[in-house]
Amino acid sequence: MKKKLVLIGNGMAGVRCIEQVIKLNPNKFEIIIFGSEPHPNYNRIMLSSVLAGDAEMKDIVINDWDWYKENNISFYPGETVVSIDTSKQTISSDKNRTIGYDEVIIATGSLPFMLPIPGADKEGVIAFRDIKDCESMVDASKKYKKAIVIGGGLLGLEAARGLLNLKMDVTVVHIASYLMERQLDETAARMLQRELEGQGMRFLLEKNSDSVIGRKRVSALRFKDGSEEPADLIVMAVGIKPNIEVAKLAGVGINRGIVVNDMLETDIPHVYAVGECAEHRGVAYGLVAPLYDQGAVLARNLCGIEGETYQGSILSTKLKISGVDVFSAGQFTDDASTRSVRVQDDFTGIYKKVLIREGKIVGAVLFGDNTDSSYLFKLIRTGEDVTGREKTIVLGESGGTKAGGTSVAEMPDDEQICGCNGVSKGTIVRAIKERGLNSVEGVRACTKASGGCGTCKPVVAEILKYVLGDEAAEEKSGICTCTELGRDEIVAAIRSMELSTSKEVRNVLDWKNPEGCSKCRPALNYYLGMARPEEHTDERESRFVNERNHANIQKDGTYSVVPRIYGGVTSPKELKRIAEVAEKYDVPLVKITGGQRLDLFGVKKEDLPSMWEDLDMPSGYAYGKALRTVKTCVGSTFCRFGTQDAMGMGIQLEKKFERLNTPAKVKMAVSGCPRNCAEATIKDVGVVAVDNGWEIYVAGNGGAKVRESDLLVKVKTDEEVMEYSAAYLQYYRENANYNERTAPWVERVGLDTIKSALETPEQRKALVERIDHALSLLVDPWKEAVEEKTVRSLYEAIPVPVSVQS
Amino acid sequence: MERIIVARVDDIPMLRGRSVMAGGIEIALFRLSNGDIKAIENSCPHKQGKLSEGIVCDNHVFCPLHDWKINVSDGMVQSPDEGCVHTFDVEVDSTTGEIAILLEDRLREIGA
Ligand code: SRM
Ligand SMILES: Cc1cc2nc3c(=O)[nH]c(=O)nc-3n(C[C@H](O)[C@H](O)[C@H](O)COP(=O)(O)OP(=O)(O)OC[C@H]3O[C@@H](n4cnc5c(N)ncnc54)[C@H](O)[C@@H]3O)c2cc1C
Ligand code: SF4
Ligand code: FES
């Protein structure tokens, strides 16, 4: 039986802990989550952005409904846990549900502190804590004009900014003599106030609220000094208190928060607490970073994995108001034992103060320029000795980077760069600085940024440049972390030493990992096959799954099947056969692809060979670094504008180059006239018919980074189209990096290089001969799998009769 | 403790993986270059990718879906990713080439 793990509170800290538990050991627990709010887990921090109109509700969901399902979590949204019986190990909810637990985590967060003044219960007096509050503010802004925010701290100012965006008049009432007195010194706070006044916010400082005036709904706020300020809406943002209700009832030890030790355990076995409701070494935190740390420690504890215990956190805060950079960390007011470095520039509105005690930075306040915040925060956390460098840390070094003023420099640190893996600019910058990285690959290895869809690579490269200066991209690096050698050196070695297996290459060239990695193994296999087609035997174990199995793996481990449909031209007979196969194998989805053919999705691996046998069509290579499709338009066969037989040309090209191994996938298209209905000018090779011949375009791409192709040459005959395409493709095969598509390749080497390599008939003839030779060695892989027993058996379940001995 | 024969060494080409079922659990078998056979749960801790389809290097397999690197001996995910998969004890009969998985009772329950 799996153990039952119950989480009370579907908020940021608790769910983060559950995420970690699932990561560490997906099968250990049956997980049950209760959340008072009727929403899936969302990013509370971003409520400020939602209010300000910079994000929508859907943008801030961290784990959507599917996540709970996918991880088999029983989730009870809108249900509050009202009691825990720690002796019977059960919890009960307000919907009379009682559930037993083996371990229970209390993560109930905190409650907004409401000033206990007369009238505070009137309509129109709210807090700023959850989605509901956000909605109330948006509603109020539609009907009313005048808002007061009580509290000039982070939360209050962010609420006020949001209300300004909602077109309300906003007054911030604050009890202290300057804003954010818990994070800023007076100088920074005054600068902040001036900036926000410029944005239209009004401030009433040193004002002590006395009572809320109004009939049913609030109409004004009265202060202790007798003055009044009219208001239709009052938002109280004066602080939070740990939500310890359930814990207290259950007899769990509490102080201000639920008292936990370094393992996040309470004083009752099997009961844990994380997040704002917990109090660790006398501190109840109110920011997510420490809560995430707590979650990670608790997850390890629950999974029985040893690791660091929770030692408390140093905090840093930033104000999330666009156009206002405020950062504060550690100690921010001077005392007898500190010395400080300060910069104040009232003209550009910049203030920086760094506090130093005994050579170590103990705190910092930044206003107007947060560029150095992650760096300073690192120094504070690590307690590195900065003696002798005090001034450069504040004044120098980064001075250089600021001058550039590039767009990455202006990006806030928390801006997400890699959407796939959720990596922020700050994380990348820190990884570059702390680990001395100098390549995009290095950044990917350490932070995962650009490891997903890859569209953020250019931004990562820019960040590298911005952090390191121009030395960044120039750094020559090997094809993977197993070697320092680049492609050209490797291919040269293969040719000169006549190597024919990748094992030889790795031995001879002193690979760091004797068996390579998932990057170099397929690359070496390609280079060997390209340079020594006769001598090298394709190494299936070095092929990526799709190319090994000749089908595209899906997220659930099934495969997709795309048969070759030359030029996108099919027949009723062929369509019927595909339909019959789809029915016979109960294919869950049949789709027309973007490449003018049909895709059968969701096929089980063991069904592949028999399906291919029944289809009796060649592989469409929709999975391979090979020729994919040749898209065509109808051309002169039917179209009134067509000048040439585009379909015929496309089919001829596809029949000629199918199965060809290339550095990256190759797509082609043929259009029958310059209206270009086959989109030939965004293909690796595009052919466009003109009045008395064809134009051949190369290096187009319609994918992540769209690139319009370049005209390579204009020719008269069909034979010339075949000759140039063949010569071009072979030159690409012989010169591009593995995994480099034609578009970036041509950008890198230049179109002129390619034109001159294909200039003379002799040059072209030699290239064509080599490609013809390579093509002559290839067989259809589906047919091979159907006919060769040894290949076929690897798709099927192992026939050994299972025997069990107890 | 149960001993379940699931395959023969010849069923797995060098440096390849294969999936087998034992006690209701899907297990990935790997044949390493030194001849060892390793058995781990056939489900990547990231998004349940089938590890049996990954590229095998030394003592590791790279998940076919998003390239996480996992040690096939101790089941630990390598940095920068985190997590682990179950590993299973394996016995290979050197005369028959039969591969047996030793299944602890505790694990059988998870699968069932
Ligand atoms: C099936 C199809 C989508 C569809 O339903 O229409 C498709 C599906 C996939 N594409 Fe595509 N692409 C498909 C047409 C396209 C097109 C349109 C086209 O070919 O006309 C493009 C843009 C054109 C281009 O490539 O220049 C396209 C640009 C990409 C890219 C970005 C490539 C780039 O260089 O930027 C990737 C990612 C990659 O290759 O790294 C990609 C990757 C993928 C993969 C293979 C992702 C993966 O690795 O698993 C998808 C497989 C889905 C699956 O579950 O099997 N697919 N993909 C299309 C198959 C066409 C075919 O018949 O072979
Ligand atoms: C507008 C706003 C902006 C913020 N900005 C920042 C920022 O920039 N940086 C930063 O670090 N932090 C910020 N914070 C603070 C941050 O959001 C909190 O520190 C964090 O959400 C706390 O996480 P938690 O899991 O402890 O509590 P929560 O996220 O509040 O989760 C607790 C959940 O438990 C539920 N619950 C309570 N009792 C029960 C019960 N008995 N049964 C079932 N469910 C229950 C609650 O409804 C709630 O959904 C901000 C907060 C707000 C409101
Ligand atoms: S089919 Fe292509 S565009 Fe669609 S999700 Fe997959 S990779 Fe992305
Ligand atoms: S599922 Fe294995 S890496 Fe994503």
Tell how many strands the DSSP assignment of chain B holds. Answer: 9
Main sheet of chain A, how many strands, which sense, barrel? 5 strands, parallel
Question: Biggest sheet of chain A, strands in spatial order?
Answer: 3-2-1-7-19
Q: Please state the overall shape of chain A, judged from the principal axes of the Cα atoms.
A: elongated
Approximately how much beta-strand content do the residues of chain A carry?
15-25%
Instruction: Characterize the overall form of chain B.
Output: globular
Evaluate the radius of gyration of chain B: 13 Å
Q: How are helices and strands ordered from N to C of chain B?
A: EEEEEEEEEH
Structural class of chain B: mainly beta
Number of helices of chain B: 1
Share of helical residues of chain B: under 10%
Describe this structure in words.
The complex is a heterodimer of chains A (806) and B (112). With 806 residues, chain A is of the alpha/beta class. Chain A has 29 helices and 37 strands. In chain A, strands 3-2-1-7-19 form a five-stranded parallel beta sheet, with helices on one face. Chain A has a five-stranded parallel beta sheet with strand order 9-16-10-11-12, with helices on one face. In chain A, strands 21-22-25-24-23 form a five-stranded antiparallel beta sheet, sandwiched between helices. In chain A, α1 (12-24) runs parallel beside α8, α13 packs across α15 (457-468) and α17 (487-496) crosses α19. The radius of gyration of chain A is 33 Å and the shape is elongated. Chain A starts with a strand and ends with a strand. Chain B has 112 residues and is mainly beta. Chain B starts with a strand and ends with a helix. The longest helix of chain B has 7 residues, at 105-111. In chain B, β2 and β3 (25-31) form a beta hairpin. In chain B, the strands form two sheets. In chain B, strands 1-9-8-4-3-2 form a six-stranded antiparallel beta sheet. Chain A binds chain B through residues 1-2, 22-27, 445-448, 451-452, 513-518, 521-522, 540-542, 544-545, 548-549, 553, 555-557, 793-794, 797-798, 800, 802-806, and chain B through 1-8, 11, 13-16, 18, 20-22, 33, 41, 43, 45, 47-50, 53-58, 62, 64-67, 69, 80-84, 86, 98, 109-110. β37 (803-805) of chain A pairs antiparallel with β1 of chain B. The structure holds siroheme, flavin-adenine dinucleotide, iron/sulfur cluster and FE2/S2 (inorganic) cluster. Siroheme binds at residues 552, 554, 560, 562, 591, 593-595, 597, 599, 622, 628-629, 667, 701-705, 741 of chain A.
